[in-house]
Amino acid sequence: MNTADAFAQRAWKRRVELGLSQTELARRMADRGFPWHQVTVSRTESGERPIRLDEAAALAGILGLPVVFIDADQPTEGLAADLAEATRTIAALRQRVADLERQLGKANARVSHLEGVIAQVKAAVR
């Protein structure tokens, strides 16, 4: 299987996993400046129509595929699991950042309060 055919097969599989119709995928490609229609998707997925590199990159972006999926010779076993794990890690890190931002906000409010208390004490001492 050549690189273009392998990529087309992976793109078809991912489109189906995402529940996207060929028409919806064509619309999203058109939104990115590619004059695609449902028949373009069909012919590309079946290998009847070659895919250009810029189209493949845009398609990979729409489908959430790493660009490595363009290369048929690149081993892809385990990449989906790695991607899922990375996605979970990123989500956990984002949650941690949000928690730390909340804590920082509380700490800043406490510092402001204490600065006010200090100013009152200084005013009372004068």
Automatic annotation (TrEMBL):
Signal peptide: none annotated. CDD domains: HTH_XRE. Keywords: Coiled coil. The keyword GTP-binding does not apply. Residues 76-117 form a coiled coil. The keyword Transferase does not apply. One of its GO terms (molecular function) is DNA binding. Residues 13-70 form the HTH cro/C1-type domain. This is Transcriptional regulator with XRE-family HTH domain. It comes from Thermomonospora cellulosilytica.
